[in-house]
Specification:
This protein has helices at about 1-5, 50-60, 70-75, and strands spanning about 10, 15, 25-30, 30-35, 40-45, 60-65, 95, 100-105, 110-120, 125-135, 140-145, 150. By secondary structure, it is mostly beta strands. It has a single domain, classed as Pnp Oxidase, Chain A. The strands form 3 sheets. A 7-stranded antiparallel β-sheet has the order 3-2-6-9-10-5-4, with helices on both faces. Strands 1-11-12 form a 3-stranded antiparallel β-sheet, with no helix packed on it. The radius of gyration is 14 Å and the shape is globular.
């Protein structure tokens, strides 16, 4: 399954959750819009991830859609270099919106969500998030395919 899914290119996002020293997050290619009306996002998080209990506790998350200039942020939140929790936020500028989750300054978009529903299946939690605010920027998307980062541009 893992080998097959690596063949599909996907946009790279960092999911952030928590506040203060309890902030954490994860790099994902599994964030997508469920609906525009009402604005709702879907994020799939492994329940063994350090992000899952924080999302569950705080009831919020932010989908930070990364630009092709933010691979270093993707690497940190993927755990490269052994960074965990709030250490992953070092080296970038962050601010908060309505939910209190961290938004990456300079991201292509920050989609701030409150948890609306959680469906636990197998190893993952499928999290439906009610969008409470959005900020958008400019640039080109960071994409991931077959174990490598890349860029999509027209």
């Amino acid at each position: 399954m893992k080998t097959a899914m690596r063949r599909m290119s996907g946009g790279v996002s960092v999911i952030t959750a928590g506040v203060g020293d309890e902030r954490t997050g994860a790099t994902v290619t599994s964030a997508t819009a469920l609906s525009v009306d009402p604005p709702t996002m879907i994020v799939n998080i492994n329940r063994s991830s350090s992000s899952w209990p924080i999302i569950s506790r705080y009831g919020h998350f932010c989908v930070n859609i990364l630009s092709d200039e933010q691979q270093d942020v993707a690497d940190r939140f993927a755990g490269k270099g052994g960074l965990k929790g709030v250490e992953r936020y070092d080296g970038a500028e962050w601010f908060t919106l309505a939910s209190g989750a961290s938004v990456l300054r300079g991201a292509l978009a920050g989609i701030d969500c409150e948890v609306d529903e959680v469906i636990e299946r197998h190893s993952h939690a499928i999290i439906l998030g009610r969008v409470v605010s959005i900020v958008a920027g400019d640039g080109h998307s960071l994409v991931y395919s077959n174990g490598r980062y890349g860029r999509f541009s027209l």
